[in-house]
Design a protein that fits this description.
With 1023 residues, this protein is α+β, with helices and mostly antiparallel strands. It contains 40 helices and 19 strands. A 16-stranded antiparallel β-barrel has the order 1-2-3-4-5-6-7-9-10-11-12-13-14-17-18-19. Strands 15-16 form a two-stranded antiparallel ribbon. β13 and β14 form a beta hairpin. α32 packs parallel to α34. The longest helix has 24 residues. The protein is elongated and about 165 Å long.
């Protein structure tokens, strides 16, 4: 093959020299050089290489360092297999005249790398196999631009012509013809390409007849003439004229005489043949075959063969037609039949060899892909012994490496990783240039934690064998190791015209990952630089972008809402539910609550698909984790856009000693909530009239008399017997706002009570990863007893004390992803103070978890575990002067198991919670009068008289407890809802009861479902 390149290049070189010399005036020396070169061309075309050598020496004596002299010497050395000598001439050319045409032509031979040489070999073999389009691909891998070597150029353009690029092939050869008008070989090549494309002209016939008399090329011209005659048939008028001219020029040529006789016979039988259907079908099939339409050709050739099975033209045509469709086994059978019909024709034996090779090649790949390694080995052995194997050394080595790789993978699948690795190493030693073998070996290195060696393998591949597939495999390796920037740079090294669909898809994935990474770092800056990002993103990336924006959206980002809205319809089914959920979150964050509601509803509808449910509010078994969140957001969005009024009436009862520890209360709750116009959230106003009734104290009860107020110290005019009922009335008031992520309120404990205080709070909510965090600072009134809630007058003196406020800071956290489990926790520090009440501090830590044992719309069960730990510096639980009468043990510990059942059935919702628990307490010692040392001293001095030690002793307590809570709500119509709440708590020392009935009025009338679980109001003072 290389020798052919040499011969063609010498001719091309000298022809170009000859043409160029004729285009400008020449001096004496130049004319001498041109004369010598013309003689070289003449003798070369006639095969007299001895005369060519003599003439090159003459030219060398004229200008020994001329680029053409160096080129000719290099080519002579190359032909004689003196490779190093040829390369020295080439290197001298590169050094002295790097841009000279002689250097460029010589580079095609001497400096053509092994990959390009292999591509040329593959192209020739593919051409013989009739796989012309694949041959063109190989030619272009070797020569991105058409080669200048004459032999290579002719084969290059022949492949293009066969692949359906006739115009380009004719144009390429015509251009060479202009440059080399005296080249007979090129003239014959151009005629042959026109013949292959059925574009012969009358000039072509005339030139071919003239060349048939040439002493050197006459035989080739006569052979081409006979091929043309045999292909077109002697019945064509132009062909008959051509035959007549040939017979006149070569009356003694046996084949031409036979053709001429046959022509005369065929002309005589033309009328009869034209009426023969089998002949017509054969001609039609051959025409389709010539036009590279093998499928249509096969159809007509089969019909012709059925009528004339003895037709060699039909048989051989079917061989070519099936081979060009890749059906080599069938083609082989047809060519063998043609060979049996015409054993003297060498072409059929050649086609049998070519077809056999490619059949075995295909079977090798098939068996390898199916894991049939034994059969693949048989096919490999056949390919090795094929006559053309010596011209396919690189291909055979590649197949050997593929077979070793397959054996390695089989060993690995069977758990023999070491053997698999050794086989891969052996395959790599035989074919280090195979990118996919290297990729497999690198994965094996990675599994063996040989990371440096893995990187080295790819570095060597890229350095020594930098093919397009090598860059692709390297890019995949880099992407797998999360080196996206390097992976993108690698895939961009692949030639643009060689990028396959898989390469382009990989490039898009890497670019998308890089864009997502940069987008997440600063999506606002990214959109400012790339305003069409959302429009250009694929659907899965678009959903990711929207989610990223929603997680960090603020009111000033409303400008991006339109871009999101325009792209929502592009989301595919897989990403629509998530896309609408995240878009709803973004719209809510930027303040478009109407659009946020529409997208939340749409997200529910998309997730449910073809569900027949008529209400988005009713949960279904098919709902995924997004639906409850979307339902909650939709309800919150509606709730935040309409005013709501709560009206409630509550009664509480805490048993105890009348007038001292007992407390009954009645409360009316009026709660108005008004949403903001420009943002999410609402402001509220509270007015809660509260009536307290502590009962009538019996001061003849000496135990309580001595432990109430300053009763222990009363000596004269001390009240006795049943006292008037202790009652109080006041109105608690408050205003505030809830902005979603933070809130505040300020108000008064009931004005009209013996004592009223300012109360209120401020807090914020945040998300930290999967956790919700809440921080609150507040001041609240203690409502458990008359002393702590409203203060009380001492019946034994003019003193009064009480109305205790808790002033504290609380940190809460929770984790709930809507799954089976959830967790919550609170910790904080409180400072207690009140009028004439000892100051106090409390620490606490609460935590609990819960399990959703069962969950459906009408019925759900949650089981929890709650632990409480807290303690006070001072125990001020008592009712003597200076105590706050709020439960304040030195230490309190409890554990409880709450079980909650809730659900929603049409217009009705419910919640029932029962709890069983156990607690233990430690009570600290405390004096009777902690705020007045004088009173305490008197009490101690009178201890012998009163018989009462003025100290509350330390001790322990606790025990079992249980509680039951029920809440029920019913939707009356689209505006009104009614509800009931009742709670019973029982322990060894504590047994309060509570009952509430309420109405809720929605001004907007959006017909929201009843809350699940129910949503009863609470008193402002209990906020």
């Amino acid at each position: 093959m290389v020798r052919r390149w040499f011969n063609g290049l010498i001719l091309l070189l000298l022809m170009i020299v000859s043409v160029a010399a004729n285009e400008r005036p020449l001096d004496g020396q130049a004319q001498s050089i041109q004369s010598v070169e013309a003689q070289i061309v003449y003798w070369y075309e006639r095969g007299r290489m001895d005369r060519v050598e003599d003439l090159i020496q003459q030219l060398e004596r004229v200008q020994p360092n001329h680029p053409r002299v160096l080129e000719l010497r290099a080519m002579i050395a190359w032909q004689q297999r003196q490779t190093e000598q040829a390369r020295r001439y080439y290197n001298q050319l590169v050094e002295n005249a790097p841009e000279h045409p002689a250097t460029r032509r010589l580079r095609e031979i001497v400096a053509l790398d092994s990959e390009a040489q292999q591509a040329v070999g593959n192209a020739e073999l593919l051409y013989l196999a009739g796989r012309y389009e694949e041959a063109v691909v190989e030619w272009r891998l070797a020569f991105p631009r058409a080669p200048e070597n004459l032999d290579l150029a002719i084969q290059y353009w022949f492949a293009h012509a066969r692949a359906g690029q006739a115009d380009e092939a004719v144009a390429g050869l015509t251009q060479l013809r202009r440059e080399q008008p005296n080249s007979v070989r090129l003239q014959l090549a151009l005629i042959e390409v026109r013949f292959l494309q059925n574009q012969l002209t009358s000039d072509d016939y005339q030139n071919l007849a003239r060349l048939s008399e040439d002493a050197v090329f006459g035989a080739q011209a006569r052979a081409l003439s006979l091929r043309i005659i045999n292909f077109f048939g002697v019945e064509t008028a132009s062909v008959n004229d051509f035959i007549a001219v040939l017979e006149e020029k070569h009356p003694d040529h046996l084949e031409i005489s036979e053709v001429a006789e046959r022509s005369r016979q065929v002309v005589a039988a033309t009328a009869e043949l034209e009426s023969d259907p089998a002949f017509q079908k054969l001609q039609r099939g051959l025409t389709y075959l010539a036009n590279e339409q093998p499928l249509m050709a096969e159809r007509w050739l089969r019909e012709s063969y059925q009528e004339r099975p003895d037709s060699v033209a039909a048989v051989s045509g079917l061989g070519y037609a099936t081979m060009r469709q890749g059906r080599h086994a069938e083609a082989l059978a047809w060519f063998r039949r043609a060979a049996s019909m015409e054993p003297e024709v060498e072409q059929w034996q050649q086609m049998i060899e070519v077809t056999t090779f490619w059949r075995d090649f295909g079977l090798f790949g098939q068996h390898l892909n199916e894991g049939e390694l034994r059969r693949a080995q048989i096919m490999f052995d056949r390919l090795q012994s094929h006559p053309d194997a010596e011209n396919q050394v690189d291909l055979i080595a590649n197949l050997d490496a593929r077979l070793l790789r397959a054996r390695a993978m089989a060993a690995t699948e069977q758990g023999d990783n070491d053997s698999g690795h050794e086989l891969l190493l052996e395959a790599y030693r035989r074919e280090p240039s195979d990118p996919w073998l290297v990729a497999t070996l690198v994965q094996s290195h990675e599994q063996r934690e040989e990371l440096e060696l893995a990187a080295q393998r790819f570095a060597e591949l890229i350095q020594h064998y930098p093919s397009d597939d090598a860059w692709f495999a390297y890019s995949l390796y880099l992407a797998r190791n999360e080196r996206d920037d390097d992976a993108l740079a690698a895939i961009l090294r692949v030639s643009e015209n060689a990028r396959s669909e898989a390469m382009l898809a990989h490039q898009e994935r890497i670019q998308s990952r890089i864009d997502v990474r940069d987008f997440r770092q600063d999506w606002r800056r990214f959109l400012a630089s790339n305003p069409n990002t959302l429009d250009d993103a694929d659907t899965s990336t678009l959903a990711t972008y929207i989610s990223t924006m929603a997680a960090d959206a603020r009111a000033s980002d409303r400008q991006y809402l339109r871009a999101i809205e325009q792209n929502m319809t592009r989301l595919d089914t897989e990403n629509q539910a998530e896309g609408y959920a995240e878009a709803s979150r973004f719209a809510e964050a930027v303040g478009d609550r109407s659009l946020a509601y529409q997208w939340a509803v749409r997200g529910i509808e998309v997730q449910r698909g073809d569900s027949e449910s008529t209400s988005i509010w009713v949960s279904q078994e098919s709902d995924d984790w997004r639906v409850p969140g979307l339902q909650s957001r939709a309800r919150n969005l509606i709730s935040s856009s309409e005013k709501v009024l709560y009206l409630g009436y509550e009664q509480r009862q805490k048993s105890g000693t009348p007038g001292i520890t007992e407390l009954n209360s009645k409360s009316v709750m009026i709660d108005l909530r008004v949403p903001f116009d420009s943002r999410s959230g609402y402001w509220f106003a509270r007015v809660d009239p509260i009536w307290l009734d502590a009962g009538a104290a019996d001061l003849d009860n000496t135990f309580w008399r001595n432990r109430f107020g300053t009763g222990l110290l009363c000596e004269e005019d001390c009240p006795e017997g049943i006292q008037p009922v202790r009652k109080d009335f006041g109105v608690a008031m408050g205003v505030g706002a809830d902005y979603g992520d933070w809130w505040f309120d300020i108000g008064r404990s009931p004005v009209g009570f013996n004592r009223s205080d300012w109360i209120g709070g401020v807090g914020m909510r945040r998300s930290l990863g999967e956790f919700g965090v809440r921080l609150t600072a507040s001041r609240r009134i203690q409502t458990a007893t008359l002393i702590s809630f409203a203060s009380i007058e001492d019946p034994f003196s003019d003193r009064n004390w009480g109305a205790v406020t808790k002033n504290g800071i609380d940190l809460g956290a929770s984790w709930d992803q809507g799954g089976r489990f959830g967790w919550w926790g609170n910790t904080g520090l409180d400072y207690y103070m009140g009028h004439q009440v000892e100051e106090n501090w409390r620490w606490y830590a609460f935590t609990g978890g819960y399990v959703r044992a069962y969950s459906s719309e009408p019925f759900a069960v949650t089981v929890g575990l709650t632990t409480l730990f807290w303690g006070f510096d001072e125990d001020l639980s008592e009712t003597t002067y200076g105590h706050g009468h709020y439960y304040s043990p030195e230490q309190y510990r409890s554990i409880s198991v709450p079980i909650t059942v809730f659900g929603r059935i049409n217009r009705f919702s419910y919640l029932v919670r029962g709890s069983l628990g156990y607690s233990s307490t430690r009570l600290g010692e405390q004096i009777f009068f902690p705020t007045d040392a004088t009173l305490q001293e008197i009490a101690q001095q009178n201890q012998e008289v009163t018989g009462v030690s003025p100290f509350f002793t330390a001790g322990t307590g606790g025990g079992r407890s249980h509680s039951l809570t029920g809440v029920f709500e019913y939707q009356i119509n689209r505006h009104w809802y009614v509800g009931l709440r009742t709670e019973l708590i029982r322990s060894d020392t504590f047994a309060p009861n509570q009952g509430l009935i309420y109405l809720r009025y929605h001004f907007g009338g959006y017909n929201l479902p009843v809350a699940r679980p129910p949503d009863p109001p609470s008193r402002y003072v209990d906020r």
